[in-house]
């Protein structure tokens, strides 16, 4: 779950995180540090997000699901104060409006740059040892050894 790690990293960097999720994950998102969580399936979710951002500046929007989320992300970033930036884990969207920057995020692309060093070397080891960063979601263990590879794939 990309959201699990992104929420914690953003909060550790000093940002307030407002996110969407299914209602069953609201408390989980808050445990990870989100200040507000809204139902992404709600027909009024964009209005709710815009209200949450009243009087605040956004650093941008992260889209982790693609598809129909593109329109919601654009509505929120265009109608809020702050950075007109959308990071997405999905490709294949139409070009954003001229005043919005959209970048595709792929986790392995940061391993050899300053962001990777800041996260994987400077922050994460200490945060894991102190318990301020929680590996999330909980790992699923399929078994031990090579005999368990198919079970892991199935899981």
CATH architecture: 3-Layer(aba) Sandwich
The top-level CATH class is Alpha Beta
Number of helices: 6
Distance between the termini: 15 Å
What is the mean pLDDT? 90
Q: If you consult CATH, what is the topology?
A: Rossmann fold
Provide the low-confidence segments as ranges: none
List the helices and strands and how they pair.
Layout: H1 2-12, E1 18-21, H2 26-31, E2 36-39, H3 45-52, E3 57-58, E4 61-63, H4 69-79, E5 81-82, E6 85-88, E7 101-104, H5 114-130, H6 149-154
Parallel strand pairs: 1-2, 3-5, 4-6, 6-7
Task: Jot down its keywords.
3-stranded parallel β-sheet; 155 residues; Rossmann fold; globular; alpha/beta
Question: Would you give an account of this structure?
Answer:
The chain is α/β, with parallel strands linked by helices and 155 residues long. The protein has one domain (2-154): NAD(P)-binding Rossmann-like Domain (Rossmann fold), CATH 3.40.50.720. It is 38% helix and 15% strand. It is built from six helices and seven strands, in the order αβαβαββαβββαα. A three-stranded parallel beta sheet has the order 4-6-7, with helices on one face.
Summarize the entry for a quick read.
The protein contains 6 helices and 7 strands, in the order H-E-H-E-H-E-E-H-E-E-E-H-H.
């Amino acid at each position: 779950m990309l959201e699990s790690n992104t929420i914690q990293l953003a909060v550790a960097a000093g940002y307030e995180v407002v996110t969407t999720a299914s209602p069953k994950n609201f408390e989980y998102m808050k445990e990870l540090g989100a200040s507000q969580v809204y139902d992404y399936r709600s027909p009024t979710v964009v209005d709710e997000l815009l209200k949450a951002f009243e009087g605040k500046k956004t650093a941008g929007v992260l889209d982790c699901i693609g598809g129909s989320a593109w329109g919601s992300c654009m509505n929120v970033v265009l109608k809020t104060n702050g950075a007109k930036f959308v990071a997405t884990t999905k490709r294949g969207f139409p070009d954003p409006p001229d005043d919005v920057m959209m970048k595709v995020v792929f986790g392995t692309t940061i391993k050899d740059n300053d962001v990777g060093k800041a996260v994987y070397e400077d922050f994460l080891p200490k945060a894991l040892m102190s318990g301020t960063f929680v590996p999330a979601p909980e790992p699923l263990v399929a078994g031990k050894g090579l005999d368990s590879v198919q079970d892991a794939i199935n899981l």
